[in-house]
Amino acid sequence: MTEKDVQIINKEEYISEESTEQKVIFDINIFEQIKGKELDLSVEKIFKIPLIRNIFKRQKEEYYVVSQKEHIIDCKNTKGKARIPIINKRIINKEIQEIKAKEPIKYVHLGGIEILIKACFREGIDTPIEIYLADDRIVEPIERSIISAVKGNLIYQKFKFIISAYKR
C-alpha cells in the first residue's frame, strides 16, 4: 500500500498549553493493516506509510540561550545576606521575545545555572562562604524555597559551582 492508496477522511489537531491531541480518520484498508499488529504504540511501528506517520510526529523547535550577568556585592554585605537576582520572569520573557519562532513558545526549560564568585581582595585570606540558591516565589515554609546550597572558601580568589536540572 502506498501513500496514494490512503484515503484520509478527516484530520484534526488540537494544541493547548496543557496537552496536544491528534486524530486521523481513515478507511478500512488502513485499519486492516493496523489491527493485526503487535501492540506497540510508537508511530513508526504502527504506521509504515510516511504520509500518516508524519501527521503524528510532533514538531519540536529548540532554542538555546546562554547569558552572562555580573553583580557586585558591597563590602558592607559580607556578613549576612546579599540578594543577587539571577533570573526572573521578566528576563525570561525578554529572551523569548528575541527569538524569532514560527509559533508562540509555550514551554521554557531552564537547563542549568553556573555561578562564579570572584574575591576582590588579596589571595590567601581565609574567607569561608555559604551560598543558598532559592526560589523567592515560595514563602511558606521557607526551607522548601532552597534549590541548592553550597559551602566553600574564597582563599584562592574564585569559587564556582553549577546547578543543573539533570541528575548526574
Can you put this structure into words, describing what you see?
InterPro entries: Caulimoviridae_Movement, Viral_movement. Keywords: Coiled coil. The protein is α+β, with helices and mostly antiparallel strands. It folds into two domains: 3-55, no CATH class; 75-164, no CATH class. It is 17% helix and 26% strand. The strands form three sheets. A two-stranded antiparallel sheet has the order 1-2. It has a two-stranded antiparallel ribbon with strand order 3-6. A two-stranded antiparallel sheet has the order 4-5. A hairpin with a 4-residue loop joins strand 1 (8-15) and strand 2 (20-26). The longest helix is centred in the middle third of the chain and has 10 residues, at 89-98. 1% of the residues are buried.
SSE pattern, N- to C-terminal: EEHHHHEEEE
Q: What is the gyration radius calculated from CA atoms?
A: 26 Å
- What average pLDDT do the residues reach? 70
Principal-axes shape call: elongated
Q: What quaternary form is this?
A: single chain
Strand arrangement within the widest β-sheet reads: 1-2
Tell me how many strands there are: 6
Strand content: 25-35%
Secondary-structure topology with pairs:
Elements: E1 8-15, E2 20-26, H1 28-35, H2 43-46, H3 50-55, H4 89-98, E3 112-118, E4 128-134, E5 146-153, E6 158-164
Antiparallel strand pairs: 1-2, 3-6, 4-5
Question: In brief, what are we looking at here?
Answer:
The protein is built from four helices and six strands; from the N terminus they run E-E-H-H-H-H-E-E-E-E. It has 168 residues and is an alpha+beta fold. A two-stranded antiparallel ribbon has the order 1-2.
